[in-house]
Predict the 3D structure of the following.
Amino acid sequence: MRTSEILRSVIANILSNKFRVFLTTLGIIVGSATIVLVISIGVGGQKSVEEQFARLNADIITVMAGRNTVTQISPEDLEYIEEKSTLLKNSEIFLQGNVTASSSYEEFSGGALGVNESFIELNNFEMASGYFIEEEDVSRRQKVVTIGSEVALTLYGDASSAIGETLTISGRRYEIIGVLEANGKMVGFSSADEAIFFPYTTYESYITGKNLKPALMLQAYSVDETKLLYEDVINILNLKYMSSGGNPFMIRDAGSALTAAEDSAKMMTVLLTSVAVIVLIVGGIGIMNVLFVSVKERTKEIGILKALGAKRKIILLIFLFESIAISIIGAVVGIGLSFVIMPLMKYTGIPAIPSASAYIVAVVFALFTGTFFGYYPALSASKLKPIDALRYE
């Protein structure tokens, strides 16, 4: 019996029992659709986490003085780290503190930072209006500031109205040259949206005393290397301050939080995939039961085929191919169902990004299920003796 004849026999039997086949494939349909959706949700969740942490500079660590230490970061510390570390892509020293600023209309108390012109690029800030601190502002100690979105909103109502206005801080007047887009990022102890940015030299000269708190911003080559840089910097600072008991500074690492969040997302994907696999197993058991019924119903047909010379292998393949065909049909319908459900996911607020791997996994699991659960009934059919099969009522 040729393969084409076996396939023709399988198709004829499926078409003659369409409703039963449909009921049999329900488990495979649900399982396949679930696998596609679960993997898509996992991919979407991971991408969402990465996008959120991209806004929080996950490739950057911040080094600052601890709350209970008098030791302050110095430019020499930055030079030492730059000399010792091979994992450092970019670095920046900045000053941070708090100020009270007043305009003609309102007063605002918030974070103050003394920065260089490269600070905006390192933090991926966007400007809502005007421009950020420039090199000339730093070199000439200009009395200018760039302000966060919340500062502009509180003092002037919107970003464009703030440009060209002046703020009075500690008795000195500073011109507002730019307003940042709202971004929700933390810079040192301050929210960028609620901070006032000075040229580094201007801050150093005029915002003095207890407000002068240097900090370092260190960028890794990638988010994956942030943890390595974090550990490297701790070791370097421990070495530098060995005589005084080791690293006295506080180090923040957003990259570790990203890794933890991604691990949580992956774990959730594994758990949900396990549920989908259980659904497929239930579907496979359904296929096994239906095939056993089919073997019983077609016992005389099996006896005739064997009497005509069909070998055990042929009988086994007929029923095994039928099981695999039912699984493939279920997988295709399940994937099609996922195409219908996927666009609806946006209304639930759950991110889902379809991927080729999800469809491949769904088909592979369905094929495995059909083969595994179809083999035993097919084997049972192939072992029937011709005389017993022909006598079966």
